[in-house]
Amino acid sequence: MAARKVRSPLAAKIVVFIGALLVLAGFGGVVAAKSLINDLTGSIETANLSENGVRGRSMTGAINLLLLGLDTREGWAENTSRADTIMLLHVSASHDEAYLMSIPRDSKVDIPAWPAAQYAGGLDKINAAYFFGSQQGQGWTGGAGLTKKTVEQLTGISFNGVAVIDFNGFKNVITALGGVYLCVENDTWSSHYIDQNGKPVYYSYDGQQQLPNSWIHKKGCRTMAAWEALDYSRQRYGLPNGDYDRQKHQRELIKAMAAKATSVGVLTNPAKFANLLQAAGASLKLDTGGYSAADFLFNLKVLAAADLVTLKTNAGSFNEDPAGGEALSPGTMRMFEAARNDDLGRFLADNPEYLSP
User: Fold this and answer.
1) Is 308 contained in some domain?
2) Is 3 helix (H, G, I), strand (E, B) or coil?
3) Which letter does DSSP use for residue 160 in this model?
4) pLDDT score, position 223
5) pLDDT at 240
6) Which CATH number goes with the domain that contains 196?
7) Taking the alpha carbons of 93, 295, 116, 75 in that order, is the dihedral positive or negative?
């Protein structure tokens, strides 16, 4: 059975992709007045990583965006980052379906050469592509450029643009939203916070084992503050499916942010809306693929009519690479092929195990 699409009754909305968790994620806007888009784009750092030159004003046909989430916590230099969250957003040519897919950070792939960063290419975990591309002063454009080239080589999908967001930027957007509503499936211990007299305190340690006083994200549904939503979506140790559960929780966070951003309480509150625009703009870096930043975001108005459907890479199970790390399954490669051919609806009808509930 194909995924059921749900239309939003709102005429004007702003859709926030964070991407997630973790990684990344990304941000796209849909607003009634393009002047608001111009307010947003004034604080966004942009680049054109496209090899095809400047394009026309309107995106036609299917739209593919690469969303990268960096864990650049305070004190980390830009050229030490890895893209620990890699998501693909596919919007159908009919512009009424949108699909979100993840690539596991530990997937072993061929990373192509990137001469500008003096990288010769090789087999490595896909999250390292951003690191290799950002060396030799290439910064985020080199990191995003090499990651984009790597994912395009892996999937055969050509991207209209790339959105890059870091951990701290993510936090600012969620704070501007006033928190997000999430459900914790099972009690989950934090590898970043400890419990001191009932209060969460950040604690950095190099280990994968629960501490006696690790902070516990309790089972249940609630509105989470930025720190809690981000920390929960970043956990993988101790979860039944490890990194796959983390990917799932990051996709849930993106959908929760989109739901909150499109709520009447945000859209009809000028102060909240202005804070959201400022936080989103300051936390984003965009490869607009040859479009102006305003035109790039305005083209994403198609998302106003599309339900965001999330898919499970490797059908939600770890697929071990005999050489170490993780491999993408034949079914996952067919999923990417379906995205390339704009046929994900049919793929999900034939492979319902790839649909996130």
Assistant:
1) yes
2) coil
3) S
4) 97
5) 86
6) 3.40.630.190
7) negative
DSSP category for residue 52: S
Q: What is the pLDDT of residue 288?
A: 81
Quick: pLDDT tens for 72-98.
654 445 566 888 789 899 989 988 888
What confidence score (pLDDT) does residue 303 get? 63
Q: Quick one: which of 303, 56, 275, 60 has its CA closest to 163?
A: 303
How far is the C-alpha of 95 from the C-alpha of 164, rounded, in Å? 23
107-137 in b/e burial notation, b at 16+ Cβ within 10 A? bbbebbebeebebeeeebbbbbbbbbbbbee
What does the pLDDT read at residue 212?
92
**Residue 18 is assigned to a structural domain of this protein:** no
Low-confidence ranges of the chain (pLDDT < 50): 1-33, 53-54, 74-76
Domain count, the chain: 1
CA angle at 248 for the pair 247 and 254, rounded to the nearest 5°: 90
* Domain that residue 81 falls in: 34-354
Q: Is residue 340 part of a domain?
A: yes
